[in-house]
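>> received
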Amino acid sequence: MESVISKIVTIITEAKNEAYPAYFGYGTAVCGAESGVGGNRRIPGGPHDPLVSVMAIKDCMDDVRGVIINYTLHPSFIHEWSNVCSADYPCYVKRQIEELEPGAVTGFTQGTSGNQSSRYYRRGESFDEAERVGRTIGKAAHRAVQNAAWSDKIDIAAASVELPIELRDFGTEEELRAKVAADEAVYKDLYSRYGNSEKREEYYMWQNANLKLLGSEDQLGYVVMRKKGVKIELLGDEDPAEIQVFRLGGLCVVGIPGEIFVEYGLYIKATAGFGTVIVNELSNGCLPGYMYTPESLVTGGYETDTSMLDEEFGMKVTDIAIKTARGLR
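>> returned
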């Protein structure tokens, strides 16, 4: 962490010393499930955010010098079969932009992707598919840059609010051990029947059961660790949660820790009081699990089963983000 802090300080200093007259721009383009890119991974055709949002800088020669792209999709085309560390589709978003705007520095942030992935929309799990999707998103991002609203004078404001993390009750260790055993039996049965199947619908059956087992194992692990007094880093080091909001002219940028369901992100965008809102998840922390909707808790699944967070916590974070954003108008 000391090296990271040192690098951040160095970058801020270099940015100040090397500043130049420039224009700031922002905009959006559409690229979602209709483009075969990604969408809701819990419910095929369910709620998703198809907007590609950009912030950009161009100099007085009209050359684009920097672009930050925000998109709401898990980078999971390179999946469990892989044993390499990969930038997945954001790598190809970056390549596409930098080919169209040579010399531009490119960054990527993830939108509210807690329940968003390529699961029901991808044509495969490969680098070729990651490239197809990344370049499709990159082209949409470039359209957003080309159509951006530019200004050399913007008002800047920032605000930050913290709130304590609220946890859920998982039940007793005995109850959870029984749950793990039951989920494991279902998973093993489905895998024995469909583990080698090439049919996607049969793959989803055993894989979703596998994820459900992972969730119940996580719950048991949390309960056992707390019972033994073992520190849980994702709890102690993440509390309190920080919500951060920036106003850059007519643009609002919201930073939320952890992974949060898209329904909350859409609500923030719709009600924050700005024409354009960018929501970055996994900002300033990752939290002990997903911020899911109470509705999703009824049907269960990987996201809800692995989360330590209370079912109302996502809405509380969302309400604070909206209130803070409106306060900056």
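>> The two ends are 34 Å apart (CA to CA).
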